[in-house]
Amino acid sequence: MLGWVxxxxxxxxxxTAVVAVVVGGLLLGPLLVWLxxxxxxxxxxxxxxxxxxxxxxxxxxxxxxxMAGRVLIVAVVFLVDPAWLHRSATxxxxxxxxxxxxxxxxxxxxxxxxxxxxREWQRKRPRDKPVMA
Length: 133
Hints:
By secondary structure, the chain is mostly helical. The chain has helices spanning 2-39, 42-46, 53-64, 67-80, 98-111.
């Protein structure tokens, strides 16, 4: 009986971890981009248009993945819908307001998700000391 309870608790912990990854990774990124770009008005502050749902998801994924993922996203967008890259906008530096500062910090938070090393071999380790003979 105790084995079944522990197995159910283990599966519950695994399910909780999966839900946390889905909520944190797939929902939080686009939500922060939407908040910064559309709600706080960073789009208008730099002279760009507001983003729809798939634009928000694409920008959030673009900011959260590494360089190889960004190149892949640009290649797919260029191959699937090249006209999307030809839309014109006159972009400019945003005004130095607290609202724009908060919006830029939110975008940087999403972008910094890919800046941290996630794998053990990517972390810096102290070098092994040479053995004195």
